[in-house]
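INFO  loader      accepted 1 record
INFO  loader      residues=89
INFO  predictor   begin
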Amino acid sequence: MVQKGDLYEVTIYYNNGGIMQQGFMTPKNELHDTWKSYYEDGSKKCEAVYYKGKKTGVWHYFYKNEKTKRVTYKDNKVVKVEELEPLDN
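INFO  predictor   done
INFO  writer      dumping tokens
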């Protein structure tokens, strides 16, 4: 674990050694700041933002061979969902 100010960087791995999730946590073990998730093949699955454990801001969900979804959260609630053309991940 790497410390960045009061935050701790956390990396969770698949059994094959690839990164499953990577992001930051507060000293109270709350997800905070940017989190990224990956499929087992290493391609991007989700880019997310948390504020003290709550979903916030714009998240991007990447689906293989499908449209990307952009979801906006505020205080852990969905406020907007948009479908985008597939992006290179």
